[in-house]
Amino acid sequence: MNKKVITGVVIVALIAVAIAVWWYGRGDEDKNQLILHGNVDIRQVSLAFEESGRIQSLMVEEGDQVHAGQVLARLDTQALEIQKSQAQARLDAQKQTVLEQQAGARPEEIAQAKAQLASAQAQWVRAQEDISRVQRIATSTGGKGISRQELDVAQSNLRIAQASVRERQANLALMEKGVRSEQRAATTAQVRALQADLELLQYRISQAELRAPVDAVVRSRLQEPGDMTSAQKAVYTLALSEPKWVRVWVAESDLGRVKSGMPASILTDAFPDKAVTGQVGYISSVAEFTPKSVQTEELRTHLVYEVRIVVSDAENVLRMGQPATVRIHTASENGGNDNAR
After folding, report:
1. Closest among 9, 38, 11 to 291, alpha carbons compared
2. Preceding peptide of 213 cis, ω within 30°
3. φ/ψ of residue 321, rounded to 5
4. HSE, side-chain direction, 13 A CA sphere, residue 19
């Protein structure tokens, strides 16, 4: 009977020692780490076309991994292609006008102008001869051989011939000099304007392709081929693979133990034995009441500070909104000063 009592006492003593060791060990562990609970957060991108139009095709589905620059969707660009052809034709025509002004008049045109001037000069000479003949007759006959009307007609023909010669001379000089510099500048400016119109249409056609800005995962496909879309209507929502963090809330009493750069490990219910490494990043400088995600009644009115644990998740274990347990290793000397970025 005594042996049973002694055995029982020994067992109780061993249990007490084990509990004591566990208790003091747990105390040291609590001093060296801070256990918090939060949710995984990932940045998202909502992609929409810059142009309005009808969606021609969508290339990816929800859950697909996409890479930066990959084409995800296209708009119908038939109307823009027609406008581009029209703009190109107007630009080509205006460029020909510039070339024509730079080249000046053709030799054949100048020769034609000289011939017209020579013809006008010949008519002027003839008119002079006619007026001389009429005046001689009038003088020799005492004004009786020529009527006043014939004299007026001869004088009028002479003035017309003189005016025709001056006109042909001016036309030839203008043709030899070419177009004025101001007119050439205006024509060149018109070419630049038409070139800008063409480039704008080319840009609008290029924007009819929706491309992924970064490596990401398709989270939502919000429209379908045939839908009319605009810049205000998102087509896809992408979840970025980087950066990724866990948002936790630290009580004011524990805030002094947390410093930017402290290492941390993150565990999830899906992978309880596979910790993801991270470190303390953002530490809020503004206190707020306990958020709704913290369900402990006694903490409902306590002030807490938001902390983000930036993680390195190369295997893409963590998912957006996933609950996670964070262990911040407060005993590490790697932590810097409090960061209130």
Report:
1. 38
2. no
3. 80, -5
4. 6
Question: Checking DSSP bridges between strand 33-47 and strand 276-283, what pairing results, if any?
Answer: unpaired
102-141 confidence digits (pLDDT tens): 666 666 666 677 778 778 788 878 888 777 877 777 777 7
* Exposure on the CB side of residue 6, measured as CA atoms within 13 A: 3
**Ramachandran region, residue 219 (left: φ > 0; alpha: ψ -120 to 50; beta: rest):** alpha
CA-wise closest residue to 241 among 266, 267, 209, 216: 216
pLDDT in tens, 309-336: 888 877 777 777 888 888 888 775 544 4
Q: Helix (H, G, I), strand (E, B), or coil: what is residue 332? A: coil
| Angle, alpha carbons 155-124-119 (nearest 5°) | 145
- In this structure, what token pair is assigned to residue 122? 């010949």
Distance CA 253, CA 257 (A): 9
Q: Is-above-0.70 flag for pTM? A: no
Partnered with residue 236 across adjacent β-strands are 47, 221
The count of other CB atoms within 10 Å of the CB of residue 79 is 9
Domains detected in the chain: 46-76+207-236 (2.40.50.100), 83-203 (no CATH)
What length does the chain have? 341
In the chain, the amino acid numbered 291 is: P
